[in-house]
């Protein structure tokens, strides 16, 4: 579940990433006491690189024995490199993705897990202030409650990504943290498997965060997010608290909207409070307006005629968890369903653009000076912001949803 940019299961859930299986490159183990000629931050001879990692780990307090055990037999995994370089494609709409991920089967299983581990969820809420539905929804979204945790050797994945010079500053600390986990007896480097980017366990966390926020939920003296559901639940609660979740506050709330609103204020960073929207005729479906004084953003995943939500400050933890707007909104919605909310109203969204049309739109927006990122056909934050500004210029309701009318106007 690590949140740097969500490398793994958000994409896997949608069948969106593909990796090519290539041969593995073997590497010699690090001999105990071997001193590296240099720190070898990335690239070059793998043995020298691993020796540098060992030296750094020992300098930071790890035992030489733990470093040797963690790194012995490490290999470069070409499948990891292929995944890392794959172009992730996330082109489903909110209704498509959320219908797939927030299925009846998952909801039923989530309710069963909430009952099965009720005492653990209660403890997590008392200690960290995080609602059970929030933790359970992430648990479901990440691994189907532990059923799909990934089959890449975690040690090899982190060695591969730390040795590769694409993002060594991101992954070398994760490799050092893995050595710490090995020293604590919380991970077997030879057999532990997880996601291709080194994430581990039922809630998919990177080793550095497991070391920092790991909780022994079942009292066995170890933190095992892979095999222990209580450990996973408690650790997720502590981590979500760290991300800024505020006790007793909502995260997202479904609303209905009138035909006319200042649509240009929808989306993020409006400076509005939930009560400001309520005064304009936006109505919570559950009738609850007691959080009117909190900051509230009107979020329209498929424009003003589709599903509509107010997001509260707690929604920010979802954006920390994953940068994909569709994934985060689906995860937040899932948490409300597990907390008793009804299924959202799908409405009648305007027809969106095809992949070819989206790329044409992005090309035109880029030509107008907007930063839309890559011309990839994906409706990301930069493209949404640009769409909203151009809609306003052309007298189209500025709800951030690109349509053929906007493309024609450009």
UniProtKB/TrEMBL annotation:
Domain Peptidoglycan binding-like: 357-410
SUPFAM superfamilies assigned: Lysozyme-like, PGBD-like
GO biological processes: peptidoglycan catabolic process
Molecular function terms, GO-annotated: peptidoglycan lytic transglycosylase activity
Signal peptide: 1-23
Taxonomy, superkingdom: Bacteria
Keywords from the UniProt entry: Signal
InterPro entries: Lysozyme-like_dom_sf, MltB-like, MltB_2, Peptidoglycan-bd-like, PGBD-like_sf, PGBDSf, SLT_2
Pfam family, one: PG_binding_1
Domain Transglycosylase SLT positions: 48-335
Protein name: Lytic murein transglycosylase
